[in-house]
User: What shape does this take?
Amino acid sequence: MDERDKRRVGEQIEPGGRPKAPGRLELLQRFVNTHNHEFPDEWDRIGTPEKAQAWLLAKALIGPGDAITDADVTRLRALREGIRALAIANQAGHSAAAASEAIRDVSALAALSVVVDANGRTALQPTGEGVDGAVAMLLGILHEAQLGGDWSRMKACRQCEYAFFDRSKNRSATWCAMAICGNRIKNRAYYRRKRGTT
Assistant: This one.
């Protein structure tokens, strides 16, 4: 994969052509995948106020007049890594206590209210604007996915921690793509075994 394609991973393309998460959960998946720890820090789509503002505006999470500060970037990145840790916990069956605490810390100002549409359907809607509203919207999507059962299928790759939606029947997928991270893990294990026998 060339650099141009790597820069598109998590936004325009999925590793191995894997389908995106369904419905609004795709937005939460995109948020977690604004940065992959195997890529340079400067590729982080929310790594600066300017980048974060552009990304959040493109996703309709903030309005055109909403400014983003360095503190907002720190908060958004902490939320992203907290949600990623929840996806890792889905993958490995680990405790999510530390991730839950981190998310609570950055979400104190993010408020949601229940709204009812003309057909009587309820939904969670942010009451604030700017980063507070964006954080609230993302947490509302997380809440809905947990209630609907889709969240348990949101996982983080065992190798690169890329968030992916596990569509396998037995929910056993462990890598973002077998052809990428799965092969890397298997090749490393093979070479370790080979070194051990020589």
Summary: Residues 3-197 form a domain with the Jann2411-like fold fold (CATH 1.10.3300). The CA atoms of residues 82 and 100 lie 7 Å apart. The first strand starts at residue 112 and ends at 116.
